[in-house]
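Notebook entry, structure prediction.
Reason for the run: the old model in the group folder had no record of what sequence produced it. Starting over properly, with the input documented here first.
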Amino acid sequence: MERGLFKAAIFMEPDSSRARACEVLFDYAEIVVYVSGDDGDENELSLEYPDTVITVGGIDGSNFLFDYEHQELGPLHIQISGPVLVPGVHELPDIEFRSRVQSLIPSLGREPVNTEAAIRVFSLIILFLLGCCIAFLVYLEDIVLARIPFKWENAIGSAVIESQFGPEIEITSGQNVLLLRSIFANLVDKSGISGYDFKVHLVPSEQANAFALPGGHIVVYTGLIHSASSPEEVAGILAHEIQHVRFRHSLRRILDTVRSMALMSILFGDASELIAMARNAAVKMKLLSYDRSQETEADRGAVELLVKAGIDPLPFRDFFRRMAEMEDGTDRLYAYFSTHPSSIVRSDMIVSMVSAEYAGKKYEPIRGEWQKDELKLSDELKLKDELKLKD
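New structure, fully documented this time:
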């Protein structure tokens, strides 16, 4: 190659998308470009120094780009590799042009910043880091859960019982308590769960509900017994709550809240307000709401436990069917938006499980009936119940 002659590529009309090989001579008066034609002839183009725009670009940002508006041929775009031109840049005869080229040398190898792409990359990095934090905290939850002694869990449940329900609230005598405790004792015995001091507490409330606390405390509202058609239905609910204890779901919900607070603290620094909100929620027992997978796990475990205890699991299904009817046709829509499975979905799962795994099995009915006359709440008990739950 002659001195001052640099190999390059040119893009020009009529096919501006195709690169053609060329050589560029930076002469004293002008830039001369020698382009090989399709017919083998060499064409010579002249470019004025002042009208030539210089930038840096290319796939890896290592090329000098020269753009020129030719009077006859239209726009010309010439690329010369940086490593090719830089060694001879001091030989460029036009001082002003040479200065412009030299000012761009530090930019070689740096691709132009695409703002939109940069934002996408940054967002992906942030999402990746958040994912790592969440994955770590989830992994940490399992480690922490495995290291929490049963006696600590029992202490948590006992503290909630003492703070929310005292001897003046809990019903501790009567036929309903005896039957409830008998059913509960049978289920606990057949569950094979160890490490917990299981206790069932009957509390006056018109709500048809029951829930499990950490440590094996099961709270049953009198409204549940009043709405039950048989002891077997209540046995199904008790078996379900025992599974929540078995899988330590209540404790997991508490740890989930702690994990959320930790993540908020990582993201926003001070999580004192959020921690206060979590504490208030715990006092009102809102932490005892389980997610879909936990409810399904407890339902399946309940059916298994009922069968082990010799109790017909189909009345457990009947309870959910009746709940579905009470939901006044909104149940299927509710299933999509609630964190819990719908009553219809739960009853269908129970039927499917019984049909597939326990078809033809016979069960003895539970001896005893609920004395629903005992469940009429005095105004005094209702008031105490409402005050306790609002504190």
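Summary: The domain at 5-107 is CATH 2.30.29 (PH-domain like).
The old model has been moved to the deprecated folder.
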